[in-house]
Amino acid sequence: MNLHRIHQIGIYAKDLAEAVAFYRDTLGAKFIATFDPPGLAFFDFNGVRLLLEKGASKSTVYFSVDDIDAACAELKSRGVTFTHEPQFVHRDDSGNFGPRGGEEWMAFFTDPSGNVLALASRKVSSR
User: Could you tell me which residues are beta bridge partners of residue 54?
Assistant: First the structure.
């Protein structure tokens, strides 16, 4: 397992429309998509996704891994306790985040200071 690439950073958005306008129009960030509900917007910063999340209280750093199950097993062997085991979170039928039909899987844990960290992996759709 090699955590060498940040996949996504999730940050709080008080007002999703206002935040989207700021990142897209003011900063010129590449807009990907909005899903509201549940209150999510995505941007691409040269391969690193920025997730704006309405109502989130903390930031989350997501690390990209090739095999989420193997990465979780390795981190568990190093003493990491997961708050959420690997789980399917999104089927990308429109191809917004990569090849159409790919599934995004994530697992969550915390660092010693309580910051939320996540592993993210794309799997070929089994559905």
Answer: 13
Would you call 66 exposed, middle or buried from its count of C-beta atoms within 10 A (0-12, 13-18, 19+)?
exposed
Q: How far is CA 16 from the centre of its chain?
A: 17
Structural domains in the chain plus CATH codes: 6-123 (3.10.180.10)
How many residues comprise the chain? 127
Which residues, listed in sequence order, are joined to residue 103 by a DSSP beta bridge?
91, 123
Strands 116-123 and 60-64 turn out to be: parallel
What are the backbone angles phi and psi of residue 30, rounded to the nearest 5°? -75, 110
Which 8-state DSSP code applies to residue 22?
I
- 56-91: per-residue pLDDT in tens? 777 889 999 999 999 999 999 999 999 999 999 999
